[in-house]
Amino acid sequence: MHVLKYTTPVRSNQPFKRNFVQPLKNPFGSAKPVANSAAKTSWQGVGDWYDNLVGQSGHYYHQQVILPYLKKSWPVETGESVLDLGCGQGILAKFLGSEVKFVGVDIAKKLIEAAEHDGKRKNHNYVVADVTQDLTQRLAPAKKNLEINEFDHVACVLALQNMQQPEGCIKNLATQLKSGGTGVLVLNHPCFRIPRQSGWDINSATKLQYRWINRYLTPLEIPIKAHPGQTGGALTWSYHHALQDYVGWLKAAGLALTDLAELTSDKESVGKAAKSENRSRSEIPLFLVIQFKKL
After folding, report:
1. Each residue of 240-249: pLDDT tens digit?
2. Nearest alpha carbon to residue 54 among 4, 6, 104
3. What is the pLDDT of residues 88-140, one digit of tens each?
4. Residue 19: pLDDT band by 50, 70, 90 thresholds?
5. Domain coordinates of the chain in residue numbers?
6. Which CATH superfamily includes the segment(s) 36-189+217-267+289-294?
7. Of the candidates 7, 43, 169, 277, which lies 20 to 30 Å from 137 by C-alpha distance?
């Protein structure tokens, strides 16, 4: 899962440490396994911290922005089946409820254990696996248990940008989805929310807050400290890709884009800078929601 980290606006006279951000090698190549990629990108090492931080119902933006939007725009009916890749501690499962046949997959065993401990429902099964690699055999027992042949719906919510090979995850979503079935991807907006390569500043002439973007088209591998104030400590990884990359992967997997939404924060500032900050917040989206259907 991807955690949003907020800091005070970075002024233009504070340079970036560019050496921490590495372009990905051969980012558009085949989905062959990369050595140690699963261990590197797993949130197993920060599972306890993340579970305590986010909780079983999701962080603020899960509860106030993302899940309310999915409720009105991505209908899942009673008795239908849902596959959630990168499910974490089962936030989407709890949101959908016990009447939906749900299978969640995540590489972090600690997060799967948290999901199973909090959400013991007979219609919900969880699997520990790397969602960027072929899942046919790993999903077979859960699908048999829930009498699922192909899934009615698939999802990946705030997890795809923590995967070194996101195209592998999208391929699995397509493989497991029935013809005519629907899917949803929720991302930190790849156009505006690039760790270490985007941020807020104040225009010295107009005194208005604006969003700057330093890099966009180049795929990037970006380290994120789980505990920013501590020396050393665990790292998670964020993988940036341009919007055209996601659309290309959907197309290659036989998935047709059916809807796209850009979600903004509902928070409001107070104080002398409130007007500028609230306008910026309402204009620059936090999240991108991509909906698709299998042809």
Report:
1. 999 999 999 9
2. 4
3. 999 999 999 999 999 999 999 999 999 998 757 889 999 999 999 999 999 99
4. very low
5. 36-189+217-267+289-294
6. Vaccinia Virus protein VP39 (3.40.50.150)
7. 43
Token pair, residue 183, equals 């899917």
Task: Tally the C-alpha atoms within 13 A of residue 48's C-alpha that lie toward its C-beta.
Answer: 2
d(CA 122, CA 117): 13
CB-based contacts of 135, cutoff 8 Å, min separation 6: 105, 127, 129, 172, 175, 176
Helix (H) or strand (E) holding 282: helix 274-283
How are beta strands 81-85 and 101-106 bridged, if at all? parallel
**Other CB atoms closer than 10 Å to residue 237's CB: what's the count?**
19
Nearest CA to 100 out of 152, 156, 150, 56 is that of 152
DSSP 55-121: -SS--HHIIIIIHHHHHHHS---TT-EEEEET-TTTHHHHHH-TTSEEEEEES-HHHHHHHHHH---
Task: List, in order, residues 6 or more apart from 171 with CB less than 8 Å away.
Answer: 31, 249, 253
Round to whole Å and give the CA distance between 215 and 234.
25
